Amino acid sequence: MARGKIQIRKIENSTNRQVTYSKRRNGLFKKANELTVLCDAKVSIIMVSCTDKLHEYISPSVTTKQFFDHYQKASGVDLWNSHYEKMQEELRQLKEVNKNLRRQIRQRLGDCLENLGFEQLLDLEKESQEAVYIIRERKLKVIGNKLETLKKKVRSAQDVYKKLMHEFDIRGDDPQYGMIEDAGEYEAMYGYPPHIASTPQILTLRLQPNHPDNLHAVASDLTTYALLG
Questions:
Q1: Per residue in 153-183, pLDDT tens?
Q2: pLDDT of amino acid 165
Q3: Which residues are CB-contacts of 42 (< 8 A; sequence separation ≥ 6)?
Q4: 32, 61, 86, 137: most buried, per Cβ within 10 A?
Q5: CA quadruple 106, 108, 112, 117: dihedral positive or negative?
Q6: What is the pLDDT of residue 50?
Q7: Quick one: pLDDT at residue 227?
């Protein structure tokens, strides 16, 4: 049964379009390889799909550069010279921009001011003042953030201190704890450093179960807690 003619137009379905592209690309590359083998031809094919994927074929006996050099020689068209001139122009523009930026930096440092007119000097002064204002605002913001961080640390330390003092007050009211006002000899006996042992302090003692003043025989060891100053 004869195949009907296929109307050549864009395939609207993206999946079908991609499948058709892949099949026909492979067929085209196969034909290019046959031309290379059968006819000793130099063939180059460059294809870019609708998804911007690059596919290419080049005969094994030639490189891409050799192929395009041969094309330039045969057609009389210089592909590289125009591109090189464009790159040179872009390089010249970039050098000019770099030169202007360096000059502006030196002017802000007080150099290269000899050729500036009165209006240019006023503009430079205005730009410098605006830059100083921006820098000052940024500096104040950084300082403010550091202060807030330090305040949070101070509040956290104060909360810890309050909790410890509250715990100490609870222990002070507990009859299982005794008080020692002159703790110098006691601290020296338990190996406290001299600069601490010589400082007048009040200590709390957890009384042993068999101590005559202990009305609640619960604890089994003697525990000492220094008061927070």
A1: 999 999 999 888 888 877 766 555 555 555 5
A2: 87
A3: 36, 59, 61, 62, 67, 70
A4: 32
A5: positive
A6: 87
A7: 43
Handedness of CA 96, 101, 107, 109 (dihedral sign): negative
Q: Which of 168, 196, 201, 156 is nearest to 183 (CA)?
A: 201
User: 203 with 226: CB under 8 angstroms?
Assistant: yes
How close are the terminal C-alpha atoms of the chain, in Å? 107
Separation between Cα atoms, residue 228 and residue 205, nearest integer Å: 14
Secondary structure of residue 64 in the 3-state scheme: helix
Q: Among all chains, which residue has been given the structure tokens 């008061």? A: 227
Name the token pair of 49. 């799909």
195, with CB counted inside 10 A (0-12, 13-18, 19+), is exposed
Count of C-beta atoms within a 10 Å radius of residue 132: 10
Cβ atoms < 10 Å from Cβ of 57? 17
Low-confidence ranges of the chain (pLDDT < 70): 1-4, 172-229
d(CA 215, CA 183): 23
The dihedral built from the CA positions of residue 34, 35, 36 and 37, taken in this order, carries a sign that is positive
pLDDT for residue 225: 44
* pLDDT value of position 117: 82
pLDDT the model gives residue 97: 94
